[in-house]
From TrEMBL:
Leader sequence residues: none
Single biological process term from Gene Ontology: 'de novo' IMP biosynthetic process
Keywords of the record: Hydrolase, Multifunctional enzyme, Purine biosynthesis, Transferase
Xref: Pfam families: AICARFT_IMPCHas, MGS
Entry remark concerning the domains of this protein: The IMP cyclohydrolase activity resides in the N-terminal region.
Keyword Hydrolase belongs to the record: yes
This protein's name: Bifunctional purine biosynthesis protein PurH
Pathway: Purine metabolism; IMP biosynthesis via de novo pathway; 5-formamido-1-(5-phospho-D-ribosyl)imidazole-4-carboxamide from 5-amino-1-(5-phospho-D-ribosyl)imidazole-4-carboxamide (10-formyl THF route): step 1/1; Purine metabolism; IMP biosynthesis via de novo pathway; IMP from 5-formamido-1-(5-phospho-D-ribosyl)imidazole-4-carboxamide: step 1/1
């Protein structure tokens, strides 16, 4: 007789699955709540302590941690010594383990829980059983996901048991599940212990969906999400209209959201290929969008736009005049939706609690053979700004420099931002030379640079950029400082009556 050990927290589909096993002549042993659930449904089931001759103890902390069970899972059916051990100690032969864990993930999403409540939701017996069954996949079927019940039943009905191929796939899936679960627990302890860089890094993500393709059509891709997140983001945002988000859409929308949420006053941000191309803050969101659009009327085409205030009929009419991939906002009026939903391919994304958005603390990049793991660049300034020029900046210049400095965090290095009246004029980014970045920004500004300011994500290594900016009417510059030629840069700024401010912090982005 085949025997299944069933002990699940998530009981979805377990009654129907168990009924089928009984129909195929299997015997079922079970624990606690699962035993009661199956018994209530009229399914013949053996309580686990009848097998182990040992009760559940320590308030349920120990139920299945027993050599009679684990030996019955792990013994090799084609090994004579193992068979002798089974007979000698009366081990319980188990051919299938069906188990899922205490809801640690769901517990961590709740607020106000004590450490004791959190700890008691760490499953011990479940992962042990899944690991044991997975290790012995040659003979034992392991299931944790109710979505796999159907294929297991189909194979038993067709072949009398699951196939070796299926058992091996389920084993791999189970090990991924236990590793994911353990990563959540490890993350909890590392966070409470303020451990940023543990010796062994485990990062747990679960699959959200398959994507049509990656950055390019020949690349396969999927979207994975962090398990414990109660804050608004591009993954849990509400899509009101349009086709599914692509890999590039999701990447761009995240870049947009991070920049947009840096501002409190009405602000519009246009993003293209992960980089901002037009940004403006103003007294109302309509004006902010007009300014952002006019900052770069060419690059915005086919890009995405984010607005931190509600989109109304007037703004929707303006937005509908050009082709945009995505419009992201905290809300849309019914009239605005009526206008924008006429555009078949546009995606309308609603994130209703932008003010609650919080950036991740850590970030990583994959490289061949490893990961680069670091704290996210969430710091804007590091102490007081230092005015190093003879002329102090005006309040308007300071406001514009602060605006441009925020943007500089979100552009690829080498990067510079020209701005005036809290509107970007030209953005030079991703250049191998800072002078080239300045040239690019000036070119994009199309001569509209008189009395503007510039922010640079890194220091100026020479005074040539300062000379060029002075020729185009730039009156104030904000940069990290720290070059061996700072003195020459300061002297050139003073020569041209430019206010120069050092931040003491840089914002390289690679």
């Amino acid at each position: 007789m085949k025997r299944a050990l069933i002990s699940v927290y998530d009981k979805q589909g377990i009654v129907g699955f168990s009924e089928k096993l009984i129909e195929f002549g299997w015997e079922i042993i079970s624990t606690g709540g699962t035993y009661k659930e199956l018994k209530k449904a009229g399914i013949p089931v053996i309580e686990i302590n009848e097998i182990t001759k040992f009760p559940e103890i320590l308030d349920g902390r120990v139920k299945t941690l027993n050599p009679i069970l684990h030996g019955g899972i792990l013994y090799r059916r084609d090994n004579e010594k193992d068979l002798e051990t089974v007979n000698e100690y009366g081990l319980c032969k188990i051919d299938m383990v069906v188990n899922n864990f205490y809801p640690f993930e769901e517990t961590m999403k709740k607020e106000g829980l004590t450490e004791e409540e959190i700890i008691e939701n760490i499953d011990i017996g479940g992962p042990s059983m899944l690991r044991a069954a997975s290790k012995n996949f040659k003979f034992v079927t392991v299931i944790f996901d109710h979505e796999d019940y159907e294929i297991v039943i189909e194979e038993i009905e067709k072949f009398g048991d699951t196939t070796l191929e299926t058992r091996k796939k389920l084993a791999g899936k189970a090990y991924s599940y236990t590793a994911y679960y353990d990563s959540l627990v490890a993350d909890y302890f590392n966070n409470t212990n303020s451990t940023l860089f543990p010796k062994h890094l485990t990062i747990g993500y679960k699959k959200n969906s398959d994507l049509r393709y990656g950055e390019n059509p020949h690349q396969k891709a999927a979207l994975y999400e962090k398990s414990i997140q109660n804050i608004p983001n591009t993954i849990n945002a509400k899509k009101l209209h349009g086709k599914e988000m692509s890999y590039n859409n999701i990447f761009d929308a995240n870049a947009l959201l991070e920049l947009l949420t840096e501002f409190d006053e009405p602000t519009a941000v246009a993003i293209k290929h992960g980089n901002p191309c037009g940004i403006s803050s103003s007294h109302d969101i309509y004006t902010a969008y007009l300014n952002a659009y006019n900052a770069d009327t060419e690059s915005i085409f086919g890009g995405i736009v984010g607005l931190n205030k509600e989109v109304d009929k007037k703004l929707a009419s303006k937005l509908s005049e050009i082709f945009l991939e995505i419009i992201l906002a905290p809300s849309f009026t019914s009239k605005a939706l009526e206008i924008l939903q006429k555009k078949k391919n546009i995606r309308l994304i609603e994130i209703d609690k932008l003010n609650e958005f919080k950036k991740d603390k850590m970030t990583f990049k994959a490289i061949n053979g490893g990961l680069l793991y670091q704290e996210k660049d969430n710091l804007l300034f590091n102490g007081e700004l230092e005015v190093v020029s003879k002329r102090k900046p005006t309040q308007r210049e300071l406001d514009d420099m602060n605006f441009a400095w925020i943007i500089s965090k979100y552009i690829n290095s080498n990067g510079v931002v020209l701005a005036k009246d809290k509107t970007s004029l030209g953005i030079g980014l991703g250049d191998v030379n800072r002078y080239f970045a300045v040239e690019s920004a000036l070119k994009k500004a199309k001569g509209n640079t008189e009395n503007s300011v510039l922010a640079s994500d890194g220091f100026f290594p020479f005074d040539d950029s300062i000379k060029l900016l002075a020729q185009h009417g730039v009156t104030a510059i904000i940069e990290p400082g720290g070059s061996i030629r700072d003195k020459e840069v300061i002297e050139e700024a003073d020569k041209n009556n430019i206010a120069l401010v050092f931040t003491g912090i840089r914002h390289f982005k690679h």
